[in-house]
Amino acid sequence: MNIESVLLEIDRIAGGRHGDHTISEEMRTDPRTRRVFVVVTALLVVELVIGTSALVVPVLLGKRQEVPWIVWMRLIVVLGMTVTLFYFSWRAQRGYWWAYSRLRLFSKIFPIVALTTAAIPLLYPKWMVEEQICFALIMLGISEYLSTDHMRAAYAKPPRAPKAPKVSTRETSAEAHSAELHH
Fold it and tell me: Given pLDDT bands bounded at 50, 70 and 90, which one contains residue 116?
């Protein structure tokens, strides 16, 4: 099993019914689309550097015990989210609508969560509140780039497949019984 088949399976699971839907090659390779993803990748790298620094600095300064467990958990979660966003960005660059959709959605939700938790008095130390504000601002920047008219047109939502009429087993049984009576 090669890596691409594993990634396609992840796409199928993560993307649901639109897991295999990709945008046109023309829109995917458009210079405006490529520029957006260059900026988004750069912003995600900044997120990764900030998150990694926030995780490593207390260890290097020998202040692990002074950092509450909630801070360690938040730092690990933010790093995990950032790695996930890298994956979404990479798959969106390959043209997958579902990945663009998730990246755009999370770039709007994560700042709200970060700012809300940062606003809880005494939950985080001051340096972490500042880190969360930076995280939120960068994520909002990513959201803005992904929400341009060009990007929304390039990654237009795929049309819904028409729903097949539901046939209940009771109706099927009644129709079969009726057909037997007429023969």
Answer: very high
